User: Fold these one by one.
Assistant:
Number 1:
Amino acid sequence: MNDSSSLVSLVAMAAIGLAGAGHCAGMCGGIATALGMASGGRQKPVLALAYNLGRIASYSIAGGLAATLGYWGREYLALGPLLRVFAGIILIFMGLYLADWWRGILIFEKAGVHLWRLLQPLSNRLLPVRTMPGAVLVGCVWGWLPCGLVYTALAYAAVAGSPLEGALRMTAFGLGTLPAMLLATAFSGAFARRLQDRRLRRVMALLMITFGISTLAGPVMHLVPGPGPAGQVHGGH
């Protein structure tokens, strides 16, 4: 993948994070409240930043792992086009969920519940958060919270050209969620409620659906036979 297409992918991932920021802030409302109660004054924004840096670090690790699995699938199982189709479909599903038109994406959140059951006791032991290192650790753990939006981003990271690019895609996604999450954390979830506005969610949903359709276009066009040298379609008689 060349530098320009890689840059487009990173921008797209940041846009996915920004588009779903309301969902992300709502999912993490509990930790936002916990951080808000732990400290006041000037320390609260510092803890919010530390928590979110830990959260983004977890996304980056997950992106590298997803891209590694995607690489093996492409190289050894010839699953490249199928992976892109899957990524495009997941993006569309997430857009439908954000617009509250269809909630089927929640089945993917259920798939992550088993992992979260193992990590949740650890996160509980780290609360209440009163220091920056503690906030980073909580963010690292909460980054694995079952979330359809994160799984949507991971599906797109899985089709990256390398594990490093997959990690960078998820970093860009996390940075896209950062402005809303910082405000939601610093103000104990009050800002998250504003992001749940139906009109805003539907605008963001349409953007995500559009991106999903564009992701599907590549492999679909690849499967459509093109004209032969004499103007005839390949595979026809």
Number 2:
Amino acid sequence: MAPRPTAAFFDLDKTIIAKSSTLAFSKPFQAGGLISRRAVLRSAYAQFVYLVGGADHDQMEKMRQFMSQLCAGWDVATVREIVADTLHNIVDPLVYDEAVSLIEEHRLAGRDVVIVSASGTEVVEPIAEMLGADRVIATRMEVSDGCYTGGIEYYAYAEEKARAIEELADTMGYDLENSYAYSDSVTDVPMLEVVGHAYAVNPDKELRKAAASRGWPVLVFTKPVALQSRVTFPPARPTLAALAVGGVVAVGGVLWANARRRRLGA
């Protein structure tokens, strides 16, 4: 009997790239007329807080609501065009060299590479394709007449990531016990628990504790690299978007936290 296929599941922000994937596009979104300069400045501060502190579950939920409302009325085609035009300039220098090596190793070992992110598919899919990933699990926002309504159709976050991985495993026949998962956040403990080989990457304090209690190895990625100069991956398979879910929902939860601090300090 042939062995079942296996996969490597990667969170995106602070696991493969060195910052929030959606917040990284704040300046191009401003240039495209989607957000104001004030929003760009707030996202820059949010990025700093995100990198040094992370966000808890309640902050993430508030961020989900805030960003979905901010995106209401955005033209989907415009968002996709902006991401396509600026992808390499914005994201390429932020990719961790160590993550690229891991992805290459898994592909050479015959495993599928799946990006699992709470950010939206308009941002995640192009990054995943650039990395040579096979499939994507990401957030989807509601669309009507080519524009975002401000509602969220699907949110790839926390326990939902684990559920989506199990569903994909049933579809593809993955052997999860012999599969791998990588993440930086304690909110992804459910995702890490569904595979036999879990790794904490640049973990926040709570994930570091969880990893220690569960015996998960801790990896430290520190070398952002220009992907095109690092390695040329084979093209992603046609099934890249098989489980992709869309929208432009930032990961971080820190814009709301910043706004709350400002209100309390007022």
